[in-house]
């Protein structure tokens, strides 16, 4: 049984993961809204404002990341579901770290590789609790 300090640390890690996923969601909302950050997303293939198709994809991604953010910290999420969500987040962020690391876009590599790597580690650590 974890001590009070360990439970507090784990709660802090889950909260940090939720905030990080919320940040990714906010970035996707900005892309969907037309903020010209295309060079830092989707391989940097569309500098400036993304084309409509990718803006729709970003809107969907924003919903996904927002939902994941809530699911990892909500006490209403059943333990079994939360474990599956955290497994999915760990996998998604791990793949994202690799993909961002090999991106031809320097801003994407510089911003998103470390971000997704940290989120991978946080999700992995949170997953062990369930």
What does this structure look like?
Keywords: Membrane, Transmembrane, Transmembrane helix. The protein contains four helices and no strands. Helix 1 packs antiparallel against helix 4 and helix 3 packs antiparallel against helix 4. It is 75% helix and 0% strand. It is mainly α and 130 residues long. The model has no long low-confidence stretch (mean pLDDT 95). The chain has one domain.
Give me the secondary-structure topology:
Elements: H1 4-33, H2 52-73, H3 79-101, H4 106-127
Helix pairs in contact: 1-2, 1-4, 3-4
Transmembrane segments: 56-73
Keywords: Membrane, Transmembrane, Transmembrane helix
* N-C termini distance: 13 Å
Radius of gyration: 16 Å
- Main sheet summary: none
Q: What is the N-to-C succession of helices and strands? A: HHHH
Structural domain count: 1
Number of helices: 4
Strand segment count: 0
Beta-strand content estimate:
under 5%
Keywords: Membrane, Transmembrane, Transmembrane helix
Transmembrane segments: 56-73
Write a brief caption for the model.
With 130 residues, the chain is an all-alpha fold. It is built from four helices and no strands. It has one domain (4-127).
Task: Label this structure with key terms.
130 residues, transmembrane, mainly alpha, membrane, 75% helix, transmembrane helix
């Amino acid at each position: 049984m974890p001590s009070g300090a360990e439970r507090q640390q784990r709660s802090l890690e889950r909260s940090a993961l939720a905030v990080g996923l919320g940040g990714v969601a906010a970035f996707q909302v900005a892309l969907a809204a037309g903020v010209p950050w295309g060079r830092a997303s989707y391989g940097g293939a569309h500098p400036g404002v993304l084309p409509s198709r990718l803006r729709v994809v970003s809107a969907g991604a924003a919903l996904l990341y927002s939902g994941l953010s809530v699911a990892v910290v909500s006490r209403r999420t059943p333990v079994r579901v939360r474990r599956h969500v955290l497994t999915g987040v760990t996998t998604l962020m791990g793949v994202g770290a690799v993909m961002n690391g090999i991106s031809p876009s320097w801003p994407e590599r510089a911003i998103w590789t470390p971000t997704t790597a940290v989120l991978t580690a946080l999700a992995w650590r949170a997953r062990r609790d369930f």
